[in-house]
Amino acid sequence: MPEPKAMRADARHNRERLLRIADETFRREGVDASLAEIARTCGIAIGTLYRHFPTREALLLALIHDQVTSLRESAERLAGAPAPDEALIEWLQEFGRCASGYRGLAESILTAASAEGSDLNSSVESMRAAAGVLLARAQDTGAVRADVSRAEVFALACGAGTASQYTGADPDRLLRLVVEGLAPR
Q1: Rounded Cα gap, residues 49 and 59, in angstroms
Q2: Model pTM score
């Protein structure tokens, strides 16, 4: 998420420090970590945190905006791949690595993205649409069952990412198993 223009040097420093500390905290404690504790760790008042990021969702968006954009661009790039099933697997593995960065991130994104008008909604929806093209291509070639919806694939991918956080399982392998398990019988 771009920085506001003409930000004072101290405000820019606070924002950058907030993002760094929030990233470290969310990676360690998950997305439900205390915002007050993040502010304290940064040495700022909670009001300063809220001035930069009025909601937890706004803070998460700032942290993952580039990742969501990269995932959309990756899906668009992979849409022309010669092996649609492998393109879908590759993209889902990228998605899984992103979603498993912070415990609870996948659930948080799914919830925020489903709320029309939320900051995450349009970014995540454009990423989902691009990934939907990958799914449709894999279905068109018969590599994935025709009755599988985009929402189901995202739910499975989020589940695999979450499972890898708690079990230590390789998220890439879990996501490959998800896609291979979606093949027609």
Answers
A1: 9
A2: 0.74
